[in-house]
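Query structure, 133 C-alpha cells:
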C-alpha cells in the first residue's frame, strides 16, 4: 500500500525533528538522557502536528524534556523551515508517549501471573499427564 501524503509528512517530520534536536540544538539539557521521537500525528488540514516523545529516565526527567521541547517549539520550527523540506509547516505540540511504560507494566503483570501460575499446585490430571511424558 503506497504511503499517503499525510504519512510521508509525518515520517519526514519525525526524521527531521530527530536530526535537528540531535545536531542543531545547543542547549546541553537536550544531550543528557535519551530522548526519542516515537510518532508524529498531523491533522488532516496539515496545520497542526502532535509530536510524541519517549524519554529514558525518571518521571522528572520526562517532564523536564517535555517542558524543554515545548519551550523550544519556535526554534525547532525555524530549524525545520531552514531545512526547506516542507512546503507548509504545521504548528508543533509535544506530548509524552507512555506506550513504552504501559508495555513494560503489561510485561511485569504477565510475568507475575506466570510466576503465580507456576507456584500454584497442579490439578491431579495435569500431574498424571506430565508423568506420562
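Result returned for the query:
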Amino acid at each position: 500500500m503506497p504511503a499517503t501524503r499525510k504519512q510521508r509528512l509525518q515520517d519526514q517530520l519525525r526524521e527531521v525533528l530527530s536530526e535537528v534536536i540531535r545536531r542543531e540544538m545547543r542547549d546541553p539539557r537536550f544531550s543528557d538522557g535519551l530522548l526519542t521521537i516515537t510518532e508524529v500525528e498531523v491533522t488532516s488540514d496539515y496545520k497542526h502536528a502532535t509530536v510524541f516523545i519517549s524519554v529514558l529516565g525518571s518521571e522528572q526527567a520526562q517532564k523536564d524534556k517535555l517542558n524543554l521541547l515545548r519551550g523550544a517549539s519556535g526554534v525547532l520550527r525555524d530549524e525545520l523551515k531552514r531545512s526547506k523540506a516542507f512546503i507548509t509547516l504545521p504548528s508543533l505540540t509535544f506530548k509524552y508517549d507512555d506506550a513504552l511504560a504501559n508495555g513494560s507494566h503489561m510485561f511485569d503483570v504477565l510475568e507475575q501471573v506466570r510466576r503465580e501460575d507456576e507456584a500454584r499446585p497442579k490439578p491431579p490430571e495435569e500431574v498424571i499427564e506430565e508423568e506420562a511424558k
